[in-house]
Each structure stands twice: as C-alpha cells, then as structure tokens.
Amino acid sequence: xxxxLITEPAALSDLCxxxxxxxxxxxxxxxxxxxxxxxxxxxxxxxxxDVVAIIDPLALRGDGLAPLVELLDRAALRKVLHAxxxxxxxxxxxxxxxxxxVFDTQVAAAYLGxxxxxxxxxxxxxxxxxxxxxxxxxxxxSLRPLSAAQLQYAADDVHYLRPVYEALHEQLAQRGxxxxxxxxxxxxxxxxxxxxxxxxxWRRLRGGADLAPAGQQALCALAEWREREAQxxxxxxxWVLRDEVLFELARHLPxxxxxxxSIRGLEDSARRRHGEAILASIATxxxxxxxxxxxxxxxxxxAQNALAKQLMSRIRELAQQLAxxxxxxxxxxxxxxxxxxxxxxQLFHGWRAELVGPALVALLQPAREHPASR
Length: 374
Description:
Blueprint lengths: L3 E3 L2 H11 L4 E9 L7 E8 L4 E4 L1 H4 L5 H7 L5 E4 L3 H11 L6 E3 H6 L9 H9 L19 H12 L1 H14 L3 H11 L24 H21 L3 H4 L2 H10 L4 H5 L6 H20 L14 H21 L3 H4 L2 H8 L10 H6 L1 H13 L5
Parallel strand pairs: 1-4, 2-5, 5-6
Antiparallel strand pairs: 2-3, 3-4
Helix pairs in contact: 6-8, 10-12, 10-14, 15-17, 15-19
C-alpha cells in the first residue's frame, strides 16, 4: 500500500474525516530538537486498516494541523504508538494537551515478556519477520524535498505498526492483560509529564546533594533562570549554560563580574550576555531560606543490599512465571525505596497490588519486625 503525502489543508481535512470513524490509528512523528528547546515537528505519519498517509506540517504551516489535532483529541479513537513519550511531548507542545487514549506497543510488548526497552525495528522483526531499513534514523527531516527512500522509511514506521498492534492486542486479550497495559498507558497521557515548569527545573539535575545548602539554593535559582531563558529563546538548555557551569557557579557563588571571570567553563560570550542575570539569581538565592532539595541518601547497608538482592530475585522469578519483563513489575529503584522503608505507590496499586506487592511484603516483613538486625 502506497502512502499519500499530505501537503494541502483540504487533503488533510479529507484524510481526518476518513480516519474519524476508525477504532484506532497508528501514529508516528519525525522531529528535530538538537538546535531548539521545543521539538520542531517535521512529519506526522498515520495509518488505519486501509490508509497510510504522511502529513507534512512544514508545508501546511500555521493552523494547518487543526484537523489532525481535532482527530487526535477524539476520545473514541485509540492512538497506537511505539515508545510514545517523545511523540506525545511533541503533540502536547502543539496544544498544551496530550492525545488520549494511547496504546504504546513498547509498553505492551513488555507485558508479553519482551525487553521493556525493545526498539520498533526489533519488535517488527519479532512479530512480522520483516527487517526494516533504518538508514534514515538520523536524517534531517526539516530538509525539503524528501527523497523517495525517506518517505518509504517514514511510511514503514506506521505501516508495520498495524500488524504489531493487532498481534500484541490479541495476545494480551488472550492472557487477560489488556487492562494492565491500559493502566500504564493512561499514565503517559497525563499532561503534567510534559510541562516544563521553570520552578521545577532543578529536578533535572543530578548531584545537588554534594553542595552545601546555600549552593543547593543557588543551583535551584540558576536552573530556573536557565529554563526561562531557554524557553524564551527556544534554545537547548546547554546552549544557554551547560550543567557543569551551573554547578561551578553554585559551588563558588560569585558576587561580582570579576568573580564570574574565574568560573571554569563560563565562556566570555555567555558571561557578557548572562552575567547580570546569573549574579541576580545567585543574589536572590542568598536572600531565600536555604532548603535541602537533594536529600543525601546513605548507601544501603550490607543487610539492606542483601534484602534488595532477595527482592529482585523474587521479582525475576515472578516475571518468569508470568512471562513479563521484570522491569514491568518493579525496578531496582522501587526495590531500594522499599528496603529504605518507603512503599512506592506503583507497587501497591492496580494489578501489581495483587501480584507483586504481597510477595515483596512477605519478604520484607521479617526485616521490619526486627529492625535491629539491619
């Protein structure tokens, strides 16, 4: 089946009317984000049982995607994607909302025993026997005209998503696991996942616990300033200031332009452009009450490490019995939180509360009843 290339508003409206009555559609995107803060959407590929189309947002421009946005908003239409999170972020940035409901074939495959990070080409090969050409994975999709090989590559990303979805859906239904997948996919459509609140930008940084409280406060203020600057100029965060420079500033807390000159990695051009804003952020942080944003976790004790290994072993055992990827049941991070005394909500909600939680609690109970032994 050949793919239709959509470059005119009327053709897009006709396509969306055709797809509006479908139960589900396969969706994929091609975008660029190396030089911008927000991804630049370059192509949207869609397919139903009897339609494959490639939509060119760069040709449509402006509000030309409105019929597609309306189609993706339809609650009765299931959107099938593979490793959906980045695609959903792109759609969220278009209209500040996320298409729903979604069926993520990478998520679904893990519930049938495939690796929880299985790539699209590997899943297509496993379920259809087809080997996809991935020569254009790193292509610059903003360049026009697109070659015939690029268009074929783009079409294949939804053409084969159809049999993959149908095979996964049938197997999950047979095993009574569709509701499990739907529960995890529902979390992918929460808009809060895709909002980049500058006040929360510090959460992206790792290693803040090594700083003194005043340094942590400054790092938070600098991260917030950088996020706002990157958003307003539509630049990658690192093009404003790299993470390591933020940490250097937070360690040394310069108060003057002369102090900025001694910061390792802070280039002259960045110092001239951002110097005042950087110093203002640090000064504001000095005046605020220092709050420990990155609590320091002590390493697990030998007893806790042994318990974590026991829990992971039990998880792998259960996963093998149920033909699930172990990470679907619980991650090493979940387990470490458990042995430290917390109870990750994911493990005690939905199907995991019945199949995973009780098994782990049974192993944890003796340790919690005899804390001195830890």
